[in-house]
């Protein structure tokens, strides 16, 4: 079963990479107006997706910090591998 946290990070990295590619293409100025509009729309959607992922990560970090005040020290146990 895939790990949702890993998938989310992979999706974020892929979205960010796509967004960087779109910016490069648009900066080169070789796209037609229609292609530029389409690329811009895709870029806006990717930006929103990345922002949502970052907001979720920020909330998780805040939760961990709050929980950290209540944590006790425990020995490290590596994950079991099949």
Q: In words, what does this structure look like?
A:
With 82 residues, the chain is mostly helical. It has a domain of 57 residues: Helix Hairpins (Orthogonal Bundle). The chain is built from two helices and no strands. The chain starts with a helix and ends in a 14-residue tail after the last helix.
Q: What structural class should be given to the helix and strand makeup? A: mainly alpha
Mean pLDDT: 84
Q: How does the major sheet shape up?
A: none
Over the alpha carbons, how many angstroms does the gyration radius reach?
Answer: 19 Å
The CATH architecture classification of the domain at 4-60 is Orthogonal Bundle
Total beta strands: 0
Helix content: over 70%
As a percent range, the share of strand residues is under 5%
Q: What is shown here, in short?
A:
Helix content is 74%, strand content 0%. It has 82 residues and is an all-alpha fold.
Can you give keywords for this protein?
82 residues; 2 helices; elongated; mainly alpha; Helix Hairpins; 74% helix
Question: What is the secondary structure topology, with strand pairs?
Answer:
Blueprint: H1 4-28, H2 33-68
